[in-house]
Amino acid sequence: MSHRATDQETAPLLREDTEDEGYSHTNTHQPTFAERINAIAQEPLTPLTQVLLFVALVLLLLSSVFIGLFAGEYSKLKQREHDAPKPAPTVTVTATAIVTTTAVPPPGPTAPPAEKACLTADCIKLSASILSSLDETQDPCENFFEFANGGWIADHPLPADKGSFGQFEALAQDNKRVIQHFLETPSATSSFTTSYDEQLLQKLRGFYSSCLNENRLDEIGTEPLIHFVRTVQKLFRRESLEVTAAKSEEENLKGLTPAMAFLHSRGVDALFSFQVDGDVGIDPNYMTLWFDQAPLGLPAKEYYEEDSIVEIYQDVVERLLYTLSEEEEKLQRKPPTPTLVNNAEVWPSWPWPPWDEPDHDEEKPNRTEAAHKLAKKVVKFESRIANATLDPDVYQDPFATYNRLPLSNLTASIPQINFPEYFATFAPRTFPENVIIASPAYAVSVSEILSETDADVVEAYLVVRAALTLSPNLGMATEAWKAQRTLVETLSGIKKGAVGDRAEYCVGKVEASLGFAAGRYFVNETFGGDSREKGTKVITDIVDAFKASLPDVPWLDKTSADAAAEKADAIRVKVGYPTSPNTLDPAAILRYYSRVKINEDTYFDNILSASASDSFKTWLKLGGRRNQAEWEMWPSMVNAYFNPPANEIVFPAGILQPPFFSHDWPSYLSYGGFGMVAAHELTHAFDSAGRLYNQDGKLENWWTNASNAGFQLKQECIEAQYSAYTVPDGKGGEIHVNGNLTSGENIGDTGLVQAYRAWKAQYSDSFMAGNEYILPGLNYTREQLFFIAFGRVWGNTMKTAAQVQRVRTDPHSPNIYRVQGTLSNTPQFAEAFKCKKGAKLNPPMEKRCLFWS
User: Fold this and answer.
1) Where is this region: Disordered (predicted)?
2) Residue 348 CA: distances (Å) to CA of 341, 352, 364
3) Rounded-to-integer distance, Cα 281 and Cα 697, Å
4) How far apart are CA 400 and CA 410, in angstroms?
């Protein structure tokens, strides 16, 4: 969830409990007994009435049998008493006991007739998939994560090429296979016959083919990266394309502006970043400029304090600097090639670049030593930048990161950057008068660090940022690719040298670069029928359940509860695929990607073209109004989001697939799986950050003081709860989850109770419609299966290094705690599984962090 987003809404309110349908205080007619019987007889029987009538008949029959048997035995007993002397009291008691215990036992409660399970092939497969995911040796009341996922985890060992793998990743793989099929099989898209579709598919398949051609990538080698880096260096040094005299260090630093603009326009982050989003302090739909800190070479500032990690990182930087220097020299020594002019070969003017061998007596520089020294300086420079960044939990605070200032303030803070010149690179429609600065202190610190750093170190830093970002797009035989891969393996725990399926990787690149184009064909294949309607119903049911719960939330007074209900009503719900660009309109999608130029022979350039297109579209928004039809995720993505300034919750078709959802599943599974996702995103509108945006998407304290105080107590409770959870650090110790950083996501997870309530509220109608059918072989109640559906989507295995990285950087808690922590705060779970008091997931009420009850 973005830390700058808003949403709110105005709609009332909840129907009073006394407003039962068909009841009127003005109706004074008192029907007779006969009229009541006649009215009852004419009413259609509900399922519950039918069951009760059946039970009554069974009890009547059993009673008749019992009375008859008892009467017979009683007559025999009286006859014996008449014909024989009166027995001793003890004998009489014994005889009576025999009659009452051996004739017919007292009738017990009679269960309704067993429901017939669905025995279709699809039902059997679904049941089998659920059973296979379970580990029934685990006590669900103690470790529900292992109970719900132990079988799946055992059957899905962590691949050597991945630091983490779970149900989300498995579904993403399935979605990629759908896309891969139509990329590789022309007949799979034969039904799309428009010329626009032909052009779209040509662009998609060309991009995919360029990525797959590993032989060509290895043949080209490092040359594309060398050309890119050389452009950065020329801009930084203010060189023309011809060789010019060397500039002083002070003059070179003045080239920082064009170099940064070039990097940012190609998707390479360095020093700082800009985003275009709504001005949530004034008008959330007016698109303005946000100045922000940039990602680092290492995932979090804590890594720069670990000597072992810094040593590896420094070695990677050194390898990159060395190989780029060496490869550039080789490229310069490469004999020139002529060009054709009027069918005649024309050679470059003399002198050519110095590709001749140097004289033997010329002293060659020690490239290894130079790269080593420069790498140490670059890492030190970047460490200082890292120390200037905001802590992750502070970065989540919308008020702390909203600082609306005149552009002149930013220019004064970082005089090394000529911002008007920088903006001109992106050709916005208008230059901003004001800019929102996430951290003014960061801008000042960057300027101080730049002023104290030599120009050659700053240039090397820019080169390294480009190399780390773009070297994955080279052939795997290149030294640059291998160097950055070492860092990836270290930080994520991937087995050294383990590389995943190339086709899967390339489909992922297609999605990232042309996701809305690929989404057109993905949606056609996977999201037909009434999937959109049924998915939307789950979401709107949860919104209704949330509103219905607000009057019963003890810490929320009526004023705040009414406002919260209005905000919930106003949230826009987007499901499946976007209308901008319109997934159903190939011409619109083609226009959206018109600036992306694809050549099957130049994968590296294809990546740059897609990044430049994204940058252009972003800056084009500046000064305009928000396009409320836009999406931030493409249709095949396995994710969802809440956007506070746009007041919307968005659910791509990619996550509306098993094990989260299917349009023909029983509702208890859909509400437990996908309902959890929907409730999570809705609850973000009222979490530690989302609640700070009012119904118009503006940053505003719209709750009463009393409700704010009550929420704060609940937030502190959940922060303390999750801060107590730990993961191994890989060194024999443990790292605690950051409860402050993860509080927003943890509060979002408390929305599970709303999904449960929504399922219960629609159950009667759903049962009548046949949407609560029983699956074969599952010895669990529907309530238990609801929670099993929730728990099993979080099945996941992670390398220790990946766990550490997640705890340090990710606002989401580890998956095991998203299950265990959430359920311990959900009393309905303990009730469904009849957990004993004191069980881990059935703590005393005073130890639960209950937000919505």
Assistant:
1) 1-28
2) 12, 7, 27
3) 9
4) 17
Residue 166: C-alpha distances to residues 7, 64, 157, 829 (Å): 31, 59, 10, 23
Measured in whole angstroms, the distance separating CA 186 from the mean position of its chain's CA atoms is: 32
How far apart are alpha carbons 100 and 74 in whole angstroms? Answer: 11
Structure tokens at 830: 């303990």
Smallest CA-to-CA distance from 495 within 122, 799, 846 is with 799
Token pair in block for residue 70: 């008892």
Q: Is 253 strand, coil or helix?
A: helix
| 3-state SS, residue 434 | strand
Cβ-based burial of 823 (10 A; exposed 0-12, middle 13-18, buried ≥19): buried
Task: Please state, in angstroms and as integers, the Cα–Cα distance from residue 408 to each residue in 210, 414, 423, 425, following that order.
Answer: 45, 10, 14, 19
Token readout for 784 is 């238990």
Confidence at residue 33, expressed as pLDDT on a 0 to 100 scale: 38
**712, 713, 715, 718: CA torsion to nearest 10:** 170
H helix or E strand, kind and range, residue 406? strand 404-406
**pLDDT band at 258, cuts 50/70/90?**
very high
pLDDT tens readout for residues 415-449: 999 999 999 988 766 778 999 999 999 999 999 99
CA 478/CA 489 separation, integer angstroms: 17
Output the six-digit token pair for 144. Answer: 């529900």
Phi, psi of 30 (to 5 degrees): -105, 110
Distance of CA 846 to the CA centre of its chain: 31
Q: Which of 581, 722, 730, 748 is nearest to 649 (CA)?
A: 748
CA distance 614 to 150: 41
DSSP state of 662: -
Neighbouring C-alpha atoms within 13 Å toward the C-beta of 744: 25
| Of residues 294, 285, 289, the one with CA closest to residue 402 | 289
Mean pLDDT value across residues 811-827 = 98
Per DSSP, the residues of 688-716 read TTGGGB-TTS-B---S-HHHHHHHHHHHH
Beta strands 648-652; 572-576: pairing state? parallel
pLDDT 10s digits, 560-583: 999 999 999 999 999 999 999 999
- Beta bridge mates, 573: 649
φ, ψ of residue 846 to 5 degrees: the values are -70, -15
Look at the alpha carbons of 153, 158, 162, 164 in this order and tell me if their dihedral is positive or negative.
Answer: positive
Nearest-angstrom CA–CA distance, 223 and 672: 51
pLDDT tens, residue by residue, 600-657: 999 999 999 999 999 999 999 999 999 999 999 999 999 999 999 999 999 999 999 9
Instruction: Give this prediction's pTM.
Output: 0.83
Residues near 164 by Cβ (< 8 Å), separated by ≥ 6? 158, 492, 796, 797, 798, 799, 802, 806
**Mean pLDDT confidence for 369-374:** 96
Residue 104 has pLDDT above 70, yes or no: no
CA distance 638 to 677: 11
Q: What distances in angstroms separate CA 592 from CA 581, 643, 651, 653, one per listed residue?
A: 7, 22, 21, 20
User: Please, which residues bridge with residue 10 across strands?
Assistant: none
Residue 755 has pLDDT above 70, yes or no: yes
Q: How far apart are CA 101 and CA 104, in angstroms?
A: 7
* pLDDT(51) > 80: no
Percent of the chain with pLDDT over 70: 81
DSSP single-letter state for residue 194: S
Mean pLDDT of the chain: 86
| Phi-psi category of residue 733: left, alpha or beta, with phi > 0 → left and psi -120 to 50 → alpha | beta
Contact 721, 823 (CB under 8 A): no
List, in order, residues 6 or more apart from 239 with CB less than 8 Å away. 233
Distance CA 792, CA 729 (A): 26
Contacts of 552 (CB under 8 A, 6+ apart): 853
